[in-house]
Amino acid sequence: LLDRVLRPLRLELINAGGGLALGRVGAGAERAKTYAVADLARGDAASLAETVSMLLPDLRARVAADGADGLRVNGPASAHMEVAVLCERLRKARGLKARSRYPAELLRVEPALAALDSRLARRTTFSFVTYTPLAEVITYWRRASGLALVVDWGALAGAELHPDTPIACSVVDRPWREALDSVLGGVGLVWIAVDGRTLQITTAADRRATIEFYPVATEADARELERVAIELPEAETHYDSASGSLIIRATAGGHRAVWAQVRGGSE
CA-CA distance, 24 to 73, in Å (whole number)? Predict the structure, then answer.
């Protein structure tokens, strides 16, 4: 039944460390393709390729200029998807017409933390005095906060945490941001902002980096924000004058530090 549902979507079930996950059919197959990026490159595809390679360092050897207006990507489907999504986000930030069928509503050109701010600022009180399975605590958080909480159970298993792992916790009249930090931090976990209503829960050892667009009024504002970002480990920044955005690649903790600077508070 699952195969019948997934096949038209070009998805398949794969074994992920003893659990099941969804993957693209043929995701590992290497292919090369040149993308037309004249609207973004403006006659200088080499500079665009350098920017893409900086923001997607894992693909550095897989992205290159092809003439003045082409971007050549050589790699598996995941590499092509990462480059395509970054280019579409850049188009959206610049007010340009989309060049792919990727859903425009999923292309964010403002930080996820900006949209989450009001939700995470709401105050909460809860108490699990008796030891309760971790999955049940998270289910309660979903209902009470209105947030979509996605758990990377594969990563948690590596830290010997499972859905039935018992925990006890309590919070009294604190913002959800602080409440989640307090409880998750106590068991070596963190949350990562995914979009305007979604958080992913994973291990504190998870150092994956994401790309966010920070709108800035002037280049001077961009340089001021960049000074915060360059202090972060392994962070990369690029000021895109055409969209008035400082594009930052950083870990979840890094983006929280940058966002705290933007909002003039603390995270």
Answer: 18
